């Protein structure tokens, strides 16, 4: 047995001390060798030449995340049903469009489908391969994994740079590029996509660094210089339609700066006094001091997706952002009260824009924009998820989607005009050729005992009452491959289960095939929807790939590939997964509302 005395003695023998020193040096040397462990567990030192590591959550416990395995669901599941064949046809259309782009235009932003040339609209889309980024999630959902992987290779190379005097438009870049990257990341979990989204999110942030916090129109992604748009002021949709993207990005990266920058915009909306415009948000806002400018209100261009994002902020945060929800309900009620009309003879419900005079009277334009046809989708989603919203939200959704459908069904080409003036020109002389507010009809209907369908709603909604005069005139005659109407069909199909909406979507698709498909790849916008086989406009906007074909595909797949209780579509149809802030995140980001409210329907 070795006494402590003799152990001390052994350790102090010179030979033992040399051996110990050698062992120590060896240990240090081994610790400095690069480690290559296939499990990655011991991969503590990243080689310098790799892409930057994805940002990690800075602290806190692991969280629940919707993890999509490839495939998310099998898009080919019911392969031989009648609807699966239609879904297949839409996939074929996507391939026709995308192959045309790949052959003639990649990696530029968009395809000119007739000239078969690429186009980089530097003023709008930055030249970073827009059509690819905007289409990634569509490819994933359609099961086109080869195309998806090829797209990833391009995304991996994107640096989001531009020359010093160019600008990226904040709104378009957020909804198309940032939304596209985040959604493709959520579906595939490929870290490249999150790394690029984080790069882009940071590069665009200077747009929000204004005295009020409302975004500038555009920003240079390299030097951070900002620029105003034609209007000078901030548009309503432009200001609010960054909430889903930046809040989800804040959730993924743990970066407080993202959350703070966009929540400042919401604070302005919450605090704004909009009583003089009947609780509707004016279209323009001062970037300097964050107050509304002018008295124009609209659910079409410049306004539209602001209202959509109020509801969707609540949904995306696991139905916890009750302040955004309440703003949505208040705004939607105001839209139904003040901007919603019924045509005199056919009883078509439509939503228009207006200016509000100093007495608070609404002066409507009676124009209906195709862009506004997204509203039935939002109303139906709200009615299906909110407790206590009046039934009239769902009635309005069905009635308005029917009108949007009528614009297609009446048209010789089977496609809807971009803008219609809702004014009755023939038939029995109406008291007002524009019709009366829907609210007045609704009150009358209720007072007389709510007999039959509510005004504007038909069950079943029938069309082709062609003996009646149309009650509108197309004043923007083109069809720009827009998605809003089929988006509404998709949401109505999912929330009501009425197969009529699928049938109508199929008719729209058939018209697209007939009127917009271009030989040799691509689809083109249609110049005049009142002509059959008429001239085309040499454009295939990326939203056709991102939205129109995605919603049509989802409308025809029997399985719900993107369950609406777990995913929220951004305004460019990019699905983002519902998430819940954890307690530590709420503390860290300063979120004061996050408690799940009881009683809201799942
Ligand atoms: C990515 O960039 C590298 C280097 O510039 C280039 O060789 C490669 O072809 C690019 N990949 C794609 C898919 O564009
Ligand atoms: C915001 O703008 C101010 C001046 O306008 C500048 O000093 C500051 O560095 C900017 N902050 C960021 C994060 O860009
Ligand atoms: C909001 O503005 C209206 C006039 O437009 C005014 O009468 C009202 O007092 C204001 N409300 C608040 C809370 O400031």
TrEMBL record:
Its cofactor is Ca(2+). It catalyses: N(4)-(alpha-D-Man-(1->2)-alpha-D-Man-(1->2)-alpha-D-Man-(1->3)-[alpha-D-Man-(1->2)-alpha-D-Man-(1->3)-[alpha-D-Man-(1->2)-alpha-D-Man-(1->6)]-alpha-D-Man-(1->6)]-beta-D-Man-(1->4)-beta-D-GlcNAc-(1->4)-beta-D-GlcNAc)-L-asparaginyl-[protein] (N-glucan mannose isomer 9A1,2,3B1,2,3) + 4 H2O = N(4)-(alpha-D-Man-(1->3)-[alpha-D-Man-(1->3)-[alpha-D-Man-(1->6)]-alpha-D-Man-(1->6)]-beta-D-Man-(1->4)-beta-D-GlcNAc-(1->4)-beta-D-GlcNAc)-L-asparaginyl-[protein] (N-glucan mannose isomer 5A1,2) + 4 beta-D-mannose; N(4)-(alpha-D-Man-(1->2)-alpha-D-Man-(1->2)-alpha-D-Man-(1->3)-[alpha-D-Man-(1->3)-[alpha-D-Man-(1->2)-alpha-D-Man-(1->6)]-alpha-D-Man-(1->6)]-beta-D-Man-(1->4)-beta-D-GlcNAc-(1->4)-beta-D-GlcNAc)-L-asparaginyl-[protein] (N-glucan mannose isomer 8A1,2,3B1,3) + 3 H2O = N(4)-(alpha-D-Man-(1->3)-[alpha-D-Man-(1->3)-[alpha-D-Man-(1->6)]-alpha-D-Man-(1->6)]-beta-D-Man-(1->4)-beta-D-GlcNAc-(1->4)-beta-D-GlcNAc)-L-asparaginyl-[protein] (N-glucan mannose isomer 5A1,2) + 3 beta-D-mannose. It comes from Lactarius akahatsu. Gene3D superfamilies: 1.50.10.10. Disulfide bonds join 373-404. GO terms for biological process: carbohydrate metabolic process; ERAD pathway. This is alpha-1,2-Mannosidase. PANTHER family: ENDOPLASMIC RETICULUM MANNOSYL-OLIGOSACCHARIDE 1,2-ALPHA-MANNOSIDASE, MANNOSYL-OLIGOSACCHARIDE ALPHA-1,2-MANNOSIDASE-RELATED. InterPro entries: 6hp_glycosidase-like_sf, Glyco_hydro_47, Glycosyl_Hydrolase_47, Seven-hairpin_glycosidases. Keywords: Calcium, Disulfide bond, Glycosidase, Hydrolase, Membrane, Metal-binding, Transmembrane, Transmembrane helix. Residues 446-471 are annotated as: Disordered. It comes from the Eukaryota.
